[in-house]
Amino acid sequence: MAQPVIITVAITGAVPKKKDNPAVPVTPSEQIESTHQAFEAGAALVHIHVRNPDESSGSDPELFGRVQEGVRKHCPGMIVQFSTGGRGREPAKRGAMLYLKPDMASLATGSVNFPANVYENPPDFVEGLAKTMLEYDVKPEVEVFDLAMLYNAAGLVKKGLLKDPPHVQFVMGVPNAMPARRSIFDFLRKELKEVMPRATWVAAGVGRHQWEVNQWCLETGGHCRTGLEDNLRIEPDRLAASNAELVKKIADNCARFGRRPATPAEARSILGLRQTV
């Protein structure tokens, strides 16, 4: 039987603007509609950033709440994941919306250089976010932008700050961080099996690497992430018409690798999340 693959859709992100691609959803209503389209195309998990009226990265819990409410209403069972990412957001506010109890939230386990700045995640800050997620029963998605973050996550498991099994995302192709190279991808999978053998995993390829990394994941039994946060184009010379178009590209190619899109219920089971009514 075909092996299910959880397709994550990262709908907005902290950087892409409508001027770069008019399909980027910014307001809560746009984000809900875009998520619903992606859900219908086969996505089982949505990764959410919110935006201020000027399109800058937002921290307002009310905006997160509105998007979550709409997704839960229109996309039954879909896994809601909030971003705690740092670009344009004060550290104290990055976990301020976790009391809303999304299913999951991102957790970068170290600092890393980005193209124009440093993505700062000091150890005490990371542990504080992990404790808050434990308090609200929010499952972290460990974001690994550089190799040390993998071992930092293993340390958090040993400390009891991450429940075992964790869910890990390899982020590949960000300039100044981890390159999108197959040899590195294979090494990361091997190391993950060594240090956190029960972990589930997904990989994200940024920009032109998105589809290449999607195929690596489909081939090797991992899960996939796509969406306009990571890549604005469906092909090198054509902008994506929607998040759903990027999701559909994965869904349409699953069978080539003996895979199929996971249903929301299957995705929840794979990740050890509570089922919805």
Q: What proportion of the residues form beta strands (DSSP E)?
A: 15-25%
Number of helices: 8
| CATH homologous superfamily annotation | Aldolase class I
Shape: globular
Sketch the topology as an H/E string, one letter per element. EEHEHEEEEHEHEHEHEEEHEH
Report on the biggest sheet. Answer: 8 strands, parallel, barrel
Q: Helicity range of the residues? A: 25-40%
Structural class: alpha/beta
Topology:
Blueprint: E1 3-5, E2 7-10, H1 28-41, E3 45-48, H2 61-74, E4 79-82, E5 104-108, E6 112-113, E7 118-119, H3 123-135, E8 139-144, H4 147-159, E9 167-172, H5 182-195, E10 200-205, H6 210-220, E11 223-226, E12 233-235, E13 238-239, H7 243-253, E14 259-261, H8 264-271
Parallel strand pairs: 1-14, 2-3, 2-11, 3-4, 4-5, 5-8, 8-9, 9-10, 10-11
Antiparallel strand pairs: 6-7, 12-13
Helix pairs in contact: 1-2, 1-7, 4-5
Which tags fit this structure?
single chain; about 280 residues; alpha/beta; TIM Barrel; eight-stranded parallel barrel; two-stranded parallel ribbon; 8 helices; 14 strands
Structural commentary:
The protein has 277 residues and is an alpha/beta fold. It has a single domain, classed as Aldolase class I (TIM Barrel). 35% of the residues lie in helices and 19% in strands.
Short structural summary:
With 277 residues, the protein is α/β, with parallel strands linked by helices. It contains 8 helices and 14 strands.
